[in-house]
TrEMBL record:
Keywords: Amino-acid transport, Cell membrane, Membrane, Transmembrane, Transmembrane helix, Transport. It is found in: Cell membrane. It comes from the Bacteria. It comes from Glaciibacter psychrotolerans. Belongs to the binding-protein-dependent transport system permease family. HisMQ subfamily. This is Glutamate transport system permease protein. The chain crosses the membrane at residues 20-40, 52-74, 80-101, 146-165, 185-207. Residues 16-204 form the ABC transmembrane type-1 domain.
């Protein structure tokens, strides 16, 4: 039996596609949600600040695997039934958004308060000051940290295998059960994940150089 048979390669490519799709969709969702949480976190409205703080603390301190298991097995009992892949994407999005929010908040702290005050003096509302002054500058400062969050997200997609999602790690494990060659099979899978991380890291570095402000 050939481990590199067309059938196995097809299954692995399909599983890799699922992994990449989950990472991209959850990555985009977590970036959007994370920025919104950050805005709430620095909002002058106490309720929004408190809710954002609780959100971040919850998702940072609860293991992702526990959240995946809870979503897959508890939500159907509550009457909410979703396919496995969308469920995993939603959990990954909410989980990684907390880390995005912390990264962006650290970037906001690099923006001087005087710039916000200058915006207000020019007639901008607080929301407009954040939209046109604070958020653009803070995102420039956190490109590399956000890249690290996206790398972690790509690696975390492997945990979806535990709840039945047929992504790369899951498919590799299935093939290993047939051929019993764990060193070769899982080393190859590790190299694929390494390649994904390198692509994200290099892309983040390129974006960081492009958006850098020359002083």
């Amino acid at each position: 039996m050939n481990i590199l048979s067309p059938e196995n390669i097809g299954l692995l490519l399909q599983a890799l596609g699922t992994t990449l799709m989950m990472a991209v969709v959850a990555g985009i969702g977590s970036l959007i949600l994370g920025v919104l949480i950050t805005v709430a976190r620095v909002s002058p409205i106490p309720i929004l600040r408190g809710a954002a703080f609780c959100y971040v603390q919850f998702f940072i301190n609860v293991p992702l695997l526990a959240l995946l298991i809870l979503a897959v097995f508890a939500l159907p009992d509550a009457g909410l039934i979703l396919p496995l892949v969308p469920t995993a994407i939603i959990v990954l999005t909410f989980y990684e958004a907390a880390y995005v929010a912390e990264a962006v908040r650290s970037g906001i702290n690099t923006v001087g308060v005087g710039q916000v005050e200058a915006g207000r003096a020019l007639g901008l509302s607080l929301a407009q000051s954040f939209r046109y002054i604070v958020i653009p500058q803070s995102l420039r400062a956190v490109v590399q940290p956000l890249g690290n969050v996206m790398i972690a997200l790509a690696m975390n997609t492997a945990l979806a295998a535990v709840v039945g999602v047929v992504e790369l790690t899951s498919q590799v494990n299935k093939i290993n059960l047939v051929y019993a060659q764990p060193i070769e099979i899982f080393t190859a899978a590790g190299l694929v994940y390494m390649a994904i991380a390198l692509v994200i890291g290099v892309s983040a570095g390129w974006i960081e150089r492009k958006v850098a402000i020359v002083r």
